[in-house]
Design goal:
The chain is α/β, with parallel strands linked by helices. The protein contains 7 helices and 14 strands. The protein has an 8-stranded mixed beta sheet with strand order 8-9-10-7-11-12-13-14, covered by helices on one side. The protein has a 6-stranded parallel beta sheet with strand order 3-2-1-4-5-6, sandwiched between helices. The two termini are 30 Å apart.
Length: 276
């Protein structure tokens, strides 16, 4: 039985990451049908269709969904449009995978939750670090302990030349990853900012001191204008430490590494190459 998929948004991220992934997946799974792609820019939608193997291109997502009636929809829109478009797609009853962030503020997030609960259709935000093989392996090893066993998590999230008006829409990857590793909800957070007005009116380093319901603490450091691209995590427990170098795109640490130490002795030393 065929599984049909439609894409809303054919911009740069969609072209760079999502389109090639869906094309490759469909090539390996003949039952997957790339039915339609949609963008308000008609030439861009048509180029996307030809490049990534979609059957038809549209400029109106409602028209596309009515015509194709897909089994799932993937939304890659500018962040200021994510809430409006995701609510509309959910209210039409289509399962949805959307790019982060899930709303620009609490009100938008609440609207999206309400739309999902109203229809009950499946939905997910593409927090892709949760599926990175090294992070999956770290999570599996942490499952041998309880969330209460975790003492602290440090997460360094550095970039080069990022002068985004709102870097939080990228930093949310780190915020979600730490919550995922902690296995517990954030309970208290203190934010500290160091602003760099010479780089832009809203450019700043963001530092988070966190406490979880489990009792664990976390320290997250988001620095968008450094000399290196890295995402590194250190998870400490009684007599144990896990150190992760995540192999994100163009990262200095690629292909990545995961270390587990027990009282100073190496238990595990895994390269990303060995499990990908």
């Amino acid at each position: 039985m065929a599984f049909t998929l439609c894409i809303v948004g054919c911009g740069s991220l969609s072209n760079r990451a999502h389109g090639p992934s869906y094309r490759d997946y469909a090539a390996l799974h003949p039952d997957v049908v790339l039915a339609g792609c949609c963008d308000v820019d008609a030439p861009r939608a048509e180029t996307y269709r030809q490049t990534h193997g979609f059957a038809r291109a549209y400029t109106d997502f409602r028209e596309m969904l009515a015509a194709e009636k897909p089994d799932g929809v993937c939304l890659m829109a500018p962040v200021q449009l994510t809430c409006e478009l995701s609510c509309a797609i959910l209210e039409l009853g289509y399962p949805l995978l959307m790019e982060k962030p899930p709303g620009l503020d609490g009100d938008e997030c609440s609207r999206m939750i309400a739309a999902a609960e109203k229809t009950g259709v499946a939905n997910q935000v593409s927090f892709n670090r949760r599926y990175c093989p090294l992070i999956v392996d770290l999570k599996r090893r942490l499952a041998e302990f309880t969330p209460e066993d975790i003492q602290d998590i440090r997460y360094d999230f550095f970039r080069i030349g990022r002068k985004d008006a709102d870097f939080s829409t990228t930093a949310i990857h780190g915020i979600d990853t730490v919550k995922f590793l902690a296995g517990s909800d954030y309970e208290r957070i203190r934010f500290t900012y160091r602003e760099y007005p010479e780089l832009g009116p809203t450019v700043a380093n963001i530092f988070m001191e966190c406490e979880f319901a489990s009792g664990a603490t976390a320290h997250l450091n988001f620095c968008p204008n450094t000399g290196v691209i890295i995402e590194r995590a250190t998870v400490t427990l009684l007599d144990h430490a896990f150190m992760l170098n995540a192999p994100i795109w163009a990262a200095y640490d690629s292909p990545g590494r995961l270390l587990h130490l027990h009282r100073g002795e190496t238990v595990v030393d895994i390269s990303g190459d060995s499990i990908c």
